[in-house]
Specification:
There is one protein chain. By secondary structure, the protein is mainly α. The chain has one domain. The chain contains 16 helices and no strands. Helix 3 packs across helix 11, helix 8 runs parallel beside helix 10 and helix 11 runs antiparallel to helix 12. The longest helix has 30 residues.
Length: 366
């Protein structure tokens, strides 16, 4: 991977990780467009994508640093208070103000929701690791199908959300939200679905405000991106060709910078806009991919994993000899009546020993 390819992949990852248009799908398309798919197989491409996602993980950690520190601190303090048989100050204050009867503060409870919501993708991701790394998840038919299906689902979720009298903010989330959004995050294992697109869709279905759904989606992405990125980073040194470290580092840094700007943009955009523009974009891209594949302009298979007939490098079939070529020329000095040469072969024109004896007896009798 060259530095230019790394910069392009970093920009694509940063732009598409948090905007609901599928980062993995666009990275697969970008790797094809830059020729990277001709040098890396599916497993290597999966490793590259997972490592580059660490840049966008860093963007989330920096953007939500204050929230993450509050959640972590509250989670520790509240549970230490519970072990001592009491409540934390934040939980007591909430109870006294009549907000809710809870043994945990909002921030500590949000920490539990992130843990609960991360269980589905951790389980499914480990069980289907080989499939996720294989050619199935790089197939353009799969990508185009998921681009369109999630777009339709997001459109239905927007319709359902608009019909709700009230939409909940992040302090009102419960286990139902964690399971719904966490379950939808599993769709992100399929390229074309989009992590943010799937989770925002689920959030809207269960009654979350648009900005709340996006914020919870980003917080929920932290454990998943960290786990997959660090796991693939550990294995990347064995999977990727030599000299990949510097381009990977460049792509990761670029994705972090662009990803930070993407978070800032999307959260402000969703305060006053629907996801309609992203729905339209997804459908157009999905239909365009289908059109290019059906027209034979691109192969649905990914780079080095394509079948031989798709690569255009099918080995020529062994030429069948013509009838004239099947007749072998006799060796120099060989008798045409023999099958090889006159020294160590059988001459089928020569009479057998029994025939010669019979002939000699007849001659002697005369």
């Amino acid at each position: 991977m060259s530095i230019l390819q790394a910069i392009i992949l970093g920009i694509v990852q940063g732009l598409t990780e948090f905007i609901p248009i599928s980062s993995t799908a666009h990275l697969v398309l970008a790797s094809r467009a830059t020729g990277l798919g001709e040098t890396l197989n599916s497993e290597q491409t999966t490793a590259v994508i997972a490592v580059i996602q660490l840049g966008t993980l860093l963007a989330v950690l920096i953007y939500f640093a204050r929230d993450i520190l509050k959640i972590t601190r509250a989670f520790i303090v509240d549970h230490l208070a519970l072990l001592r048989g009491g409540k934390s100050e934040a939980a007591l204050e909430m109870t006294m103000m009549g907000q809710k009867q809870s043994r945990l503060s909002d921030d500590a409870w949000l920490g539990w929701l992130i843990i609960i919501g991360s269980i589905p993708i951790a389980t499914i991701g480990l069980l289907l690791k080989k499939i996720i790394e294989g050619p199935f998840t790089k197939n353009l038919y799969v990508i185009a199908t998921m681009m369109i299906l999630v777009a339709i689902g997001l459109g239905v979720a927007e319709f359902v959300s608009r019909r709700m009298a009230r939409r909940r903010n992040i302090t009102e989330l419960g286990i139902k939200d964690a399971l719904a959004v966490g379950g939808a995050q599993c769709l992100a294992l399929i390229p074309g679905a989009s992590r943010s697109g799937s989770t925002i869709m689920a959030g809207l279905f269960v009654g979350e405000a648009r900005e709340t759904a996006a914020r919870f989606s980003f917080l929920l992405s932290i454990p998943a991106i960290a786990a997959s990125g660090l796991l693939e980073l550990k294995e990347a040194k064995d999977k990727l060709p030599g000299g990949s470290f510097v381009p990977l580092a460049v792509a990761t840094i670029v994705s972090g910078i662009v990803g930070y700007l993407s978070i800032w943009f999307l959260l402000r955009f969703l305060r006053t806009h629907t996801t309609g523009i992203f729905i339209g974009y997804r459908i157009i891209v999905g239909l365009l991919i289908f059109g290019l594949v059906f027209a034979g302009m691109v192969s649905p298979y990914y780079g080095t994993d394509a079948p031989p007939e798709q690569k255009g490098t099918t080995a020529p079939a062994a030429a069948q000899p013509s009838p004239e070529q099947k007749t072998e020329e006799p060796l120099p000095g060989a008798n045409p009546g023999t099958n090889n040469n006159p020294e160590d072969s059988v001459n089928f024109n020569r009479p057998s020993r029994r025939a010669r004896r019979s002939s000699d007896k007849r001659k002697g009798g005369r």
